[in-house]
Amino acid sequence: MATPAFDSSVLTRRGVLAAAAGSLLLAGCGQQSDDGRTGDNSAPNSHELVIGASLELTGKGAALGVLQQRAMEITVEELNLTGIPVGNLRRTVRVEFRDNRSDPQEAARQATELTRRTQVHALVGGTSTENSMAIVEVAQKLQVPFVSLAAGDDIVLPLAQRTYIYKLTPDAGDVARRMARLIESLGIRRVAVLAAAGLHGDSGVQAVRSALRDVDVALVRTVRLPASGRSFTSVARRTTAGEPDGIIVWGTAPDSGAAARELRRAGHRGPIFFDPGAVAEDTLSGANAAAVEGAYAVHPSCLAASTLTATTTAELARRDFTYRYIQRHGSFSGFAPYGSDAVQLLAAAARSASSVDRGRLRAYLQTQVTEGIAGGYAFAPIRHGGMERDSLAVYVVSRAAWSRYS
């Protein structure tokens, strides 16, 4: 099977950022020795590209974290069939997985251990914003590239303080604008927002307010989910008070599906709109199925990859990845490809840099203008949040499955 190949021919903002990335390519690169080390700042010489992954494999975040481990394992196996050319070596990829138990303190501890003791070349992980932010502090301090799998615009901002940090998920503003256009097209005039506690919800609330103003849709109230994750009954009642035409649920699985269920119990019969964090098997599970039927989600276009009409390199790669994932795990989740793309992006950076030196990996990550499994990325020295807005699409839940909405 073909490994996912990135297509850099898309003529959007990606083309502009590619040129910008090239002009500042080696800014901040360390002095590379023959074995790819920069003082104490890189892993010892080996024939591997070693990635440390701190993921939510248990605890509240497991609905998303487990998907990433599955995707990374599939992609590593595929890459290691031939290895990746890095300078005059052909390296295999090894991922050191850690379960952060959905605990930011544990995520930070693991990032430190992986960087200092295991001496990984790069870090990946944090499907929750809080866990990613904990890893950010360690990665930036120890100067190891970190590819975040979480949503939340502050993960890569301010850029001057996030020089080693990259984010794969779409920016909240891009998601909110796509969602606002959908809401307007459906003739909905009054909307309420039920948002997660914490940084992910903060980004969503701010983005939704701005996007709804642009389409002249009234935001009648904003309610936040309890940080404890306990009963959503009271917040659902507050959200549905005044009978808004539609409700935006901005959160992550498993909270998204549970929130939709409580909104229906509280009497909401209008449409529900999800951000990409809701797209996991849990949201469509038996307990939530009736509540989310007919709900909409804005999500990267990988969610409904066609096995019949794939023609481009990127589409074929998506089809092959989806096939392997379903073959191994029985069903496919649209959130899974971020882990695959993280591995591919780091492998591509190592190929381009001819090195696994951390400083050079960081510099060559910001040249990646590519089409991945989840969508298109356009990293540059001025932009470390790479998911492109033209990768987003609208989906609707139909018969317990995500279907492309047109």
TrEMBL record:
<dbReference type="InterPro" id="IPR028081">
    <property type="entry name" value="Leu-bd"/>
</dbReference>
<dbReference type="Pfam" id="PF13458">
    <property type="entry name" value="Peripla_BP_6"/>
</dbReference>
<dbReference type="InterPro" id="IPR051010">
    <property type="entry name" value="BCAA_transport"/>
</dbReference>
<feature type="domain" description="Leucine-binding protein">
    <location>
        <begin position="50"/>
        <end position="391"/>
    </location>
</feature>
<dbReference type="InterPro" id="IPR028082">
    <property type="entry name" value="Peripla_BP_I"/>
</dbReference>
<protein>
    <submittedName>
        <fullName>Amino acid/amide ABC transporter substrate-binding protein, HAAT family (TC 3.A.1.4.-)</fullName>
    </submittedName>
</protein>
<comment type="similarity">
    <text>Belongs to the leucine-binding protein family.</text>
</comment>
<keyword id="KW-0732">Signal</keyword>
